[in-house]
Amino acid sequence: MTRIVMKGRDIESLLFMGKIKSVNVEYCDESKKTAKVIVETIDGDTVETECIATRAAGKISVVVKHYLRMGVDKLIIQNTDMSNVKNVDTEVDENEIQDRQDT
User: pLDDT (tens digit, 9 = 90+) per residue, 40-84?
Assistant: First the structure.
């Protein structure tokens, strides 16, 4: 299975878009000086960072875990039906046309 490689900030962006299901950290070497952040998305894909410092990988995973625990991923963007959403900026109101003619 091929993993998609992203930067840490891009993984955090996935989180804010509500696309992350779980997060884990995996060491890259025996000395445990570098690690990868591995994320499973809601689509079933696996995304990882390159080997970065263990401390940085830990910070990224902690941030992701805290946001997941708070449920922020469910408040931002979801795959829902947008057919009922109207763009109020493009709908012209009769009063607005009258106001333009008065000036």
Answer: 998 889 999 999 999 999 999 999 999 888 887 666 655 666 667
Widest distance between CA atoms in the chain: 76
Q: Which of the 8 DSSP states describes residue 36?
A: E
At 8, which amino acid appears? G
| H and E: helices and strands count for the chain | 3, 5
Report the DSSP pairing between strands 4-5 and 46-48: parallel
Instruction: Report which residue type is found at 41.
Output: T
DSSP reduced 3-state for 39: strand
pTM: 0.67
